[in-house]
Write a sequence for this structure.
């Protein structure tokens, strides 16, 4: 994407950004002490609500995605004509931090100069690790890596840095942290996005992330309520069920959410999962359940912030309901903003908005239910300071995003997360300046779920090994799509090695990767197996003697891995999950 736009695009965004910044400065000079925005409210929230039309109120209940890296026809239509309350940015919308600042300024200007003149919630999924939308931001290794570190202070710092960088480019809502308790090794969509399998640790670190994000001026969103960690199905594709009784939910899934609510989290995102212990209605996901959203979340847990749905175009929803009907049911259930992130056709978003307007006019959604959510949304925008100022300065972005100090924190977390699970052959640590031949067999970077977006990094496991050895040969194998692994070719190459380092990438669900590892082990050479995603891969080849977990394949995790393997940094990570029959929670060797 970056190559497609190139220098001309960046120059264009800088020019637009400069105009926006100069306009803001001129406004400050014209009216000293007045924030550079035309959105400062002259009305109270209740007065605004009384003056809003039904269409304007309904629009506030939608948070939508759109194509393009500048505000095109689709976004302009949704913002100006349908009065949406918020937008979400994905990789398709992002080229660089400066470009994002220009884009968010365009969006906010469109929102505040039309209709009711209400600024937007602008959201993204900046979780860290495999889910980081803002290209060019500080690289954090992800939640499970943070769980392996176990430091509340570093979690809080990560939250603060993330918030500062998001606000610098005009993003004010982070759909993070994930506080799902990942106690199912076969979970296909949460996995290393989770802080771990211990509910108390997930609560402790999740709360620290919330506090950091909100101290930095971003509305944090704990997800996916009431908990997506103990499923073996992906709700992007189908409808999972958590079958446990209420006592189990209270003891496990709900613990981190209760802690986040106590800490004042501003938002909670729902899960498209059925929870029969809370609502026995067959096939009714939490997102559409009044018993879950109003009964459990509002009344029992006392949550007073914004309830966001997960994306309504996901398989768990659209296999049974259309997006419009799902939007009506979600609002009836108690959701404040319905998310339509990436529909097949952006016109589906308009159809859903129109369906909700019709539902309000027909009495399916009462005016009091509508006003209740509008009030919460406007209160959140006021607390975020958006009525005072919704514009940002693109020229200031470079001094606020990915600073050396922030990047140092990301590297510190990554270094402390690397976990040596086994070192039975005493292969590690390697000597710096290793003179033997290292053959690295590593996966190609790949997205395994719909929530992931590939970055532009060229970092590989081989590059990490070259930081401490000169004679490194790397063989890359595919892990997604229909391509097969050439096990014979990889094994032939490894025969000439003095040391074999093989990286795995969710090998628990790949028989080809299992065959590859076992073929390499049969060479009877010193071999290090590195799990570059979830640490459960060793379940498929328990005979491995040297096993290391990185919890991710991001550049910062690979840099940290090289530091640990060559003894420049002592390993300190502790498994934040149990590997059944192999290693208990908290396992982690050092030297």
């Amino acid at each position: 994407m970056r190559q497609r736009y190139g220098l001309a695009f960046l120059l264009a965004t800088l020019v637009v950004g400069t105009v926006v910044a100069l306009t803001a400065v001129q406004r400050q000079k014209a009216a000293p002490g007045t924030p550079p925005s035309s959105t400062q409210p002259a009305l109270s929230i209740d007065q605004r609500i009384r003056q809003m039309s039904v269409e304007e109120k309904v629009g506030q209940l939608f948070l939508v995605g759109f194509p393009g890296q500048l505000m095109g026809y689709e976004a302009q239509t949704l913002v100006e004509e349908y009065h949406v309350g918020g937008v979400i940015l994905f990789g398709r919308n992002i080229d660089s931090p400066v470009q994002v600042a220009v884009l968010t300024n365009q969006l906010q200007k469109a929102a505040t100069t039309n209709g009711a003149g209400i600024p937007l919630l602008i959201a993204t999924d900046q979780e860290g690790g495999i889910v980081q939308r803002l290209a060019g931001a500080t690289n954090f290794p992800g939640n499970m890596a943070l769980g392996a570190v176990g430091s509340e202070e570093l979690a809080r710092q990560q939250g603060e840095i993330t918030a500062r960088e998001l606000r610098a480019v005009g993003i004010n809502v982070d759909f993070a942290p994930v506080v799902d308790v990942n106690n199912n090794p076969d979970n296909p969509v949460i996995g290393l996005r989770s802080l771990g399998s211990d509910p108390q640790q997930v609560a402790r670190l999740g709360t620290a992330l919330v506090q950091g994000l909100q101290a930095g001026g971003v509305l944090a969103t704990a997800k996916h309520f009431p908990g997506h960690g103990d499923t073996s199905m992906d709700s992007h594709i189908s409808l999972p069920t958590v079958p446990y009784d209420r006592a189990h939910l209270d003891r496990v899934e709900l613990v981190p959410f209760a802690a986040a609510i106590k800490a004042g989290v501003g938002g909670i995102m729902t899960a498209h999962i059925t929870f029969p212990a809370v609502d026995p209605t067959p096939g009714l996901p939490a997102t559409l359940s009044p018993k879950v959203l109003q009964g459990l979340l509002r009344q029992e847990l006392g949550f007073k912030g914004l309830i966001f749905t997960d994306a309504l175009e996901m398989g768990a929803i659209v296999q049974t309901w259309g997006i419009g009907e799902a939007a009506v049911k979600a609002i009836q259930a108690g959701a404040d903003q319905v998310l339509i992130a990436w529909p097949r056709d952006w016109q589906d978003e308009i159809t859903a908005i129109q369906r909700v307007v019709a539902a309000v006019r027909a009495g399916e959604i009462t005016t009091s239910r509508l006003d209740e959510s509008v009030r919460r949304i406007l209160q959140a925008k006021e607390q975020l300071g958006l009525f005072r100022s919704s514009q940002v300065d693109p020229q200031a972005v470079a001094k606020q995003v990915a600073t050396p100090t922030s990047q140092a924190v990301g590297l510190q977390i990554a270094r402390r997360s690397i976990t040596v699970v086994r070192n039975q052959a005493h292969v590690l640590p390697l000597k710096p300046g290793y003179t033997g031949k290292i053959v690295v067999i590593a996966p190609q970077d790949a997205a395994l779920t719909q929530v992931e977006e590939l970055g532009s990094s060229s970092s590989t496991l081989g590059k990490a090994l070259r930081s401490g050895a000169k004679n490194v040969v790397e063989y890359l194998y595919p892990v997604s799509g229909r391509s097969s692994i050439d096990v014979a070719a990889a094994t032939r190459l490894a025969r000439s090695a003095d040391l074999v380092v093989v990286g795995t990438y969710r090998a628990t669900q790949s028989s080809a990767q299992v065959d590859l590892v076992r073929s390499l082990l049969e060479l009877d050479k010193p071999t290090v197996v590195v799990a570059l995603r979830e640490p459960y891969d060793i379940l498929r080849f328990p005979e491995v003697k040297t096993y290391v977990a990185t919890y991710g394949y991001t550049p910062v995790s690979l840099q940290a891995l090289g530091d640990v393997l060559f003894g420049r940094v002592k390993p300190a990570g502790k498994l934040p999950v149990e590997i059944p029959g192999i290693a208990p929670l908290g396992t982690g060797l050092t030297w």
Remarks:
- The domain at 418-565 is CATH 3.40.50.1700 (Rossmann fold).
